Each structure stands twice: as C-alpha cells, then as structure tokens.
Amino acid sequence: MKPYIDERRRTPKLRPLKAVKHMRALLADKEDTEQVFHIMDALNGNSSTRKLTAFVKTDSGKARMDARRELPEILDDHETLKALPEGTVGRAYVAFMEREGLSAAGLVEESEKWWDDQERFEDDLEFYGRRMRDTHDLLHVLTGYGRDQLGETSVLAFSHGHNGGFGNLFIAYIGAWELAKLAPRSAKVMSSIKEARFNGRNSLPLMHEDIVDLLREPLTQARQRMNIPEPVAYKAALKALHAEGYEGQLSAA
C-alpha cells in the first residue's frame, strides 16, 4: 500500500535560521506552543513522508489509516473517560489534562495558528500529521514526563524514536541545554534527554495504537506492553532541580 500524497505538495526545505528564530520565541514563552510547529516545519524536511510510507506498510498502520478516526473529540470527552476503571490510561489522561488545564482542542487551536499561512491538502500526510499532534499529551501520560521544561524536552526526545524529524531533537537538546546552564551539576539534565531518546527507540510507537482500546487499558499494563520504562534519569534530575528551587512538577506516573 502506498499513501496518498497530493502531488501539489512541495518537498519541504530545511530552514535552520527560521528554526533558531522560533526557538528563541519558544524559550521566551514556553507556553507558546505555536512555535513548536514552526520549528518542526523548518527542520523536519521530508521525514514525515518517509515515516508515513513505512507506517502504511504495517498492519496496524493500515488499520489506523483505514479507520480515519479523529482523536480530539475522543480525548476531550472527559465524562466518558472518567467512567473508565481507576488505573486505566484514560483515567490517567483525564487527570493529567485537567490538572494542567489542557485540552486536545487547545492543541488543535495552537497548530491552526501555524496553518494560517500554509497551503493545505486533505491527503494521507495531513491525517498522519494530525494524529501525531493529537497524541502528544497522551505520550506524556504513558512516559511519565511532566510539563516542566525538562519533561517537555524529554518527551520530545522520546518521540523522536517514534516519529523521527530533527525538529524534535533540536527542541529537546536546546531546551535542556538552556536549563542545564542554570541547573546544579547534580541534576544531570542531559542524562534525561539521552535516556528518553534510548527509551523512545526501544518502545512500541504510539502512532500505531488503537487509541480507543489504549485508553481502556490499565496504564501499568500498557507501559509494560509498549516497553515504556520508568523515566529514572528524569525523576532524579527533577528531584535535584526541586532541591534548588526549580518549580517543575512531576506528572502522575
């Protein structure tokens, strides 16, 4: 099976200067999620097309493409997810999103700011990109990385193993390096990034999962099945940072 990619699409070009500009904006305001999409666009090149092509050749990837299930409405139906048994991925996801004041629709809104001046094509690559976007916060829950600066950079390093693209690593390493400049040596900030990259490469990719089934699965069982270990280096680094007055918070693990 070959993915349908609109022939009018242009091959993305690498634009490192644009990436640096938007990375500076992101570092100035870490809640400005729109900047992430600009950085990815500037640095990921054709990696999404390559990943999609490999994705549709797998049984699980083909099933996800055939189903064409859009995730924001499912993920934002908190009442349905709260009815799931305690300890499931869905219950952990709702707790995380409500604690952090987030919604899947909010992430869509941030990405739409980037899309304002972009030509759009309703093809397989468009759907694949939406799915990658919409599973980001679910990846936080599965990995145990929080929304503090180290947690965000670590989850991007982890997701590089699933989704590729130099943009993920660029944000991860620059963000962690900025934090490391202020952190005590005992925090070992970069160890969290290295561990996250390793764990991401050795785990099952979230993009292949049936998200509705995953939400019903016990979180501990899902982590074991997908080979997602406890983020030991991250937790150790965050503990050292907290001791120095850093205000990041651990997500529910």
Question: Notable features of this structure?
Answer:
253 residues; 16 helices; globular
Structural commentary:
The protein has one domain (16-243). Helices cover 64% and strands 0% of the residues. It contains 16 helices and no strands. The chain has helices at residues 16-28, 34-43, 47-55, 59-67, 72-75, 78-82, 89-100, 104-115, 124-134, 136-143, 149-163, 166-182, 189-201, 211-216, 219-225, 232-243.
Provide the helix percentage.
55-70%
Q: Please summarize the sheet with the most strands.
A: none
Q: Helix and strand string, N-terminal first?
A: HHHHHHHHHHHHHHHH
List segments where confidence is low: pLDDT < 50 over at least 5 consecutive residues. 248-253
Counting H and I runs of at least 4 residues, what is the number of helices? 16
Number of domains: 1
Report the radius of gyration as a whole number of Å. 18 Å
State the end-to-end distance: 38 Å
* Mean pLDDT score: 90
Beta strand count: 0
Given the C-alpha coordinates, what overall shape results? globular
Give the structure's gist in a few sentences.
64% of the residues lie in helices and 0% in strands. It is an all-alpha fold and 253 residues long. The protein has one domain.
Layout: helices, strands, pairs:
Blueprint: H1 16-28, H2 34-43, H3 47-55, H4 59-67, H5 72-75, H6 78-82, H7 89-100, H8 104-115, H9 124-134, H10 136-143, H11 149-163, H12 166-182, H13 189-201, H14 211-216, H15 219-225, H16 232-243
Helix pairs in contact: 1-2, 2-8, 2-12, 7-10, 11-12, 11-13, 13-16
